[in-house]
Hints:
The structure is a single chain. The chain is an alpha+beta fold. 41% of the residues lie in helices and 18% in strands.
Amino acid sequence: MIRLASVIETFEADFLARYGGRIRREHLQALSAIKQCRTQASPKMLSRCTDTGCAHQKLVPHSCGHRHCPHCQHHESQQWLERQLKRQLPAEYFLLTFTVPAQFRALTAAAPALIYDLLLTCSWETVRTFARNDKQLRGESGAIAVLHTHTRRLDYHPHVHLVMPAGAIDQRTRQWRTKPKRKKAAGAYLFNHKALAKVFRAKLLAALEAAGLHLPPAYPADWVVDCKSVGNGQSALVYLGRYLYRG
């Protein structure tokens, strides 16, 4: 198997010569960490046989532990998935995806920490508002929110996924309410996706302006929010877990 460290070592010089002026400090830190992962350049741990009379010992290179290293983070993804599956609630789950128009990508790339936070906050506040106002839920719901910054083809495309149960807790009575399952012909339903998109658009635009950011000169009036049933949520959690602890 070709290790990512070997790929970096082979192509790093050409890559930096071409893109060195465009990449961020944290990208350079990731390259450096992954290149040294489990190599002779990394810190070492002394491993010794515990059998009586055996003096065998050797130095084992440490993993880098960087959050973008696929060698190090596979077990973290599995542990995260196991934790989420233990918290599954008695309700149908939905996967909601909030995206922003392409015209906002340059602005997002210029202030990623701020806008990523706003994307997550506005996505959650949107579904939280809908859960409180829904006639069948009328309470506080919850969601697992994950930010994705790129597509599978590595195109820059920030968007937020929320895995959410169709249920909520009545804060006064402490009762758990769920939306009744619809007939298959009607299809599963949580919230109207067009209404979600309108509210999300308004919240994010207001948040960007409040942060003092200059909006793009032109962008679509209609935004996109996808909302689809994912059964008990396991398939959606597995999908998100694949990307959660790696670049």
